[in-house]
Amino acid sequence: MSKKKPYCECLNTVKPVRDTLEVINGKWKLSIIISVGVGNSRFTEIQESIPGLTPKVLSKELKELEQHQLIKRIITNDYPVKISYCLEPYADTLTPIIYAMKDWGLNHKKKIFQENPSEI
Amino acid sequence: MSKKKPYCECLNTVKPVRDTLEVINGKWKLSIIISVGVGNSRFTEIQESIPGLTPKVLSKELKELEQHQLIKRIITNDYPVKISYCLEPYADTLTPIIYAMKDWGLNHKKKIFQENPSEI
DNA sequence: TATAGCTATTTCCCAAAGGAAAGTGAAATA
DNA sequence: TATTTCACTTTCCTTTGGGAAATAGCTATA
């Protein structure tokens, strides 16, 4: 007879959630996807649309998002070479996550405010 | 006439998403919420149910989750003092995010496998 | 020709995240 | 009495994330 109650299995949920986190982790990736999604396609546009985002970080994150096939980098070989970014169709599959997080964030702010209106 | 195309506003989505990330960021928080949610209530149970989670990190994360009113720490003052953890009702509001991320992770694995079956 | 703008890259640096391992104090068990 | 378990805490260390600022190569504009 064992004394120890065995723990409840939860890996069937924990593992896929962690797989997702490996792709969209970090402070900036989802924001960049949102920004490109609403129409910002140039490096500078994306950077200016997200306060606090520095060019170094944007550059690095764009590369990672490219590798995960969420964002496409397009080089236009016109007279002035132009580089622009757009979402890959695969990025659309993130929409449910983004909306769930948007809704939660809005509701959370409301809750915080109701509990303590002084916190802006 | 301005030459510069102004960037598209996306802060109405970016900001709440970042507010959410501030609460559930990091590698472990969602996993811990999932584990407690399926019934693991003791420190050691939670730790054992999540491979790779060390006691130091679990301890720290539990405190942060308590502060955000997602998890409740319960001290039972019986003959042996027992400490257990359970979800606050507020943690249930994270369910849509967790399910969206679980679904995405499962689908992502499938996609990776279809593209390159060698990567387990 | 000089200056400004775009799209980054590079260097340097600091703080936070997180892992390994040992320790702690209280209670339970042998 | 000695050992084990539980619930952490502490220490030490490495890795990662990310900010500031300078620079680079190209084109456009004055």
Automatic annotation (TrEMBL), chains A, B:
<keyword id="KW-0805">Transcription regulation</keyword>
<dbReference type="InterPro" id="IPR036388">
    <property type="entry name" value="WH-like_DNA-bd_sf"/>
</dbReference>
<dbReference type="InterPro" id="IPR002577">
    <property type="entry name" value="HTH_HxlR"/>
</dbReference>
<keyword id="KW-0238">DNA-binding</keyword>
<dbReference type="Pfam" id="PF01638">
    <property type="entry name" value="HxlR"/>
</dbReference>
<keyword id="KW-0804">Transcription</keyword>
<protein>
    <submittedName>
        <fullName>Helix-turn-helix domain-containing protein</fullName>
    </submittedName>
</protein>
<dbReference type="InterPro" id="IPR036390">
    <property type="entry name" value="WH_DNA-bd_sf"/>
</dbReference>
<feature type="domain" description="HTH hxlR-type">
    <location>
        <begin position="8"/>
        <end position="113"/>
    </location>
</feature>
